[in-house]
Design the sequence.
């Protein structure tokens, strides 16, 4: 798939980039995407949720009233889960939600997500660029020139040599800037438009076209 290369002003540079079929034109694997996204979201969870069990409640352990003859159900202490303020039965406890996936499966998921974006014509390729200074206004102008102001965008850079592009975008909603090393399936699918620099396309091919 051949794509025209644009500059930050949204104009064609005359150059073209070939999106490799081995990365942007495979047979998508939906189950691989599901597993990779599930792992990404699970790994974001802190797992610090906690409720007190019966043995952790502060209070008296005396029996509230005699076992028989009251006409009501038997009851122990106020720590019983049956009473307001008592312990919770089978409540949440701290745990680790993360799990591992094979590298080949994660690579397949990323390639599948990139293929879907290519099929939807949601990929724009930009020439490699840097910002001389950190200015959010400059990034906003670039989005306007590329006609992606109202879209949720993901800009993928070849590397992090110049941090000004990232710093200029981090205060903007619906905008995310990452390097190729940080690329994940969730971010690709979550973005409406995928912006790739020419260098990022080459790096992706080297990393995933195996």
Sequence:
């Amino acid at each position: 798939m051949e794509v025209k290369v644009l500059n930050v002003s949204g104009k064609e540079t005359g150059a073209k980039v070939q999106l490799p079929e081995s990365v942007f034109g495979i047979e998508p694997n939906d189950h691989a995407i599901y597993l990779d996204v599930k792992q990404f979201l699970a790994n974001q969870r802190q797992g610090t949720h906690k409720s007190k069990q019966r043995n952790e409640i502060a209070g008296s352990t005396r029996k509230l009233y005699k076992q028989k003859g009251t006409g009501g159900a038997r009851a122990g202490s106020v720590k019983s889960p049956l009473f307001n303020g008592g312990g919770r039965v089978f409540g949440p406890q701290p745990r680790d939600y993360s799990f591992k996936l094979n590298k080949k499966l994660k690579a397949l998921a990323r390639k599948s997500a990139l293929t879907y974006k290519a099929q939807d014509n949601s990929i724009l390729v930009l020439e490699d660029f840097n910002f001389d200074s950190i200015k959010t206004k400059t990034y906003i102008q670039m989005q306007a020139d590329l006609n992606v102001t109202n879209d949720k965008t993901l800009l993928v850079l070849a590397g992090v040599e110049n941090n000004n592009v990232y710093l200029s975008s981090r205060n903007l909603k619906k905008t995310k800037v990452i390097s190729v090393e940080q690329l994940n399936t969730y971010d690709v699918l979550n973005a409406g438009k995928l912006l790739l620099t020419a260098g990022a396309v080459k790096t992706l091919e080297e990393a995933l076209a195996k």
Observations:
- The mean pLDDT is 92.
- DSSP finds seven helices and six strands in the chain.
- The domain at 2-45+97-208 is CATH 3.40.1370.10 (Ribosomal Protein L4; Chain: A;).
- The first helix runs from residue 21 to 24.
